[in-house]
Design brief:
Shape: globular
Distance between the termini: 28 Å
Number of helices: 13
Low-confidence stretches: none
Helix content: 25-40%
Bound molecules: glyoxylic acid, manganese (II) ion
Oligomer: single chain
Radius of gyration: 22 Å
Length: 403
Amino acid sequence: MSVRDRLAEISAIGRDNVRGGYSRHLLDPAEVALRSWFRSSAEALGLSVELDGNGNLWAWWGESRRGAVATGSHLDSVPGGGAFDGPLGVVSALEAVAILKAEGWRPARPIAVCAFAEEEGSRFGMPCLGSRLMVGEIAPEDALARVDRGGVTLEEAWRQAGLEISAIGPDPDRLAGIDMFLELHVEQGLDLEDRGLPLAVGSAIMSHGRWRLSIVGEGNHAGTTPMHGRRDPVVAVSSAALAVREIALERPAARGTVGRISVTPNGTNVIASRVDAWLDIRAHSDSEVRAQLDATIALIQKRVAAEGCALQVHEESFSPLVLFDEPLTARIAGLLGGVPAIPTGAGHDAGVLSAYVPSAMIFVRNPTGVSHAPEEAAREEDCEAGAQGLAAVLRNLTGEASR
Ligand code: GLV
Ligand code: MN
Ligand code: MN
């Protein structure tokens, strides 16, 4: 097979007919279909597949569960996301195993291909949910109480999928069995396109976090309520979104986004009573993110108060700055022919794992530079080069077993 063939196998799963691209969210029918595709693809390669207590899938090459080199990514997407963010890393890991098996390679240590649950946090709001649960960064009870857009708790979703509630939580034994983690990922910018190179390694992930802003005003009639004296949370959230941009623009390389808004009750002839908006802030250090957040909230608070509304801020997640393991990253860059190391503004499970095991990333050139949107792209030859590169890295990191 090839990366292209493997991506083709899942190309019809979870298409978003409104936005275009894909909407594949934790334990929805599309994501469940991807899970069974993962299982059969891995089993066809002779790997043994297991589901851990946190919804992450592991496909093992080798009997031992110690000293493993793990590689993979995620199968879920943002709403209306592209074909590559997540699946490319999983597909490339499977293809790299296929390449090594075809040449008769016998790894001296186990290789695990993994697919982490809810990396995007699109259903329950916590990015890298599966890897964070595994390493113990979120308490199981906090995860279980999270609610999706339809009011379904993670606990209910878990039960409906027939998963074991008591199995959720830290998995130190599994973590202790992993010596290194590698995540291949589509690049989410134009750096490689500009450099004319197909591959790079990751050097760092920007610090970032998500906050829910709840703005409460006064619901009333659109026709009978005079314009003066209204307390309209839609007006307040509009000025809040402008504040997010104004503050981010004042700070070098900072990012500030409101990508999701929910209006209650959302009627054309109704002044809304409440708006929830989700704020995403990213910067080059944890303290810069905190300072940007403080400045942003102070300005929003002023504008919300000027509209006569009340503001509540709730932190949904925080992801500290990640600097990938330098020796491992340099070794991989060398194995790929001396490719550059580039930073990214996107979060990844490799970022979570990097605090516990040496972790590294390989980026594959994206000719549009777009991601989290249907226009996300990767050329076929670059994807194949990525899988070949990953195979070469796995060959080197695992070493050949003596015959
Ligand atoms: C995940 O892709 C993120 O960076 O939000
Ligand atoms: Mn993503
Ligand atoms: Mn991703």
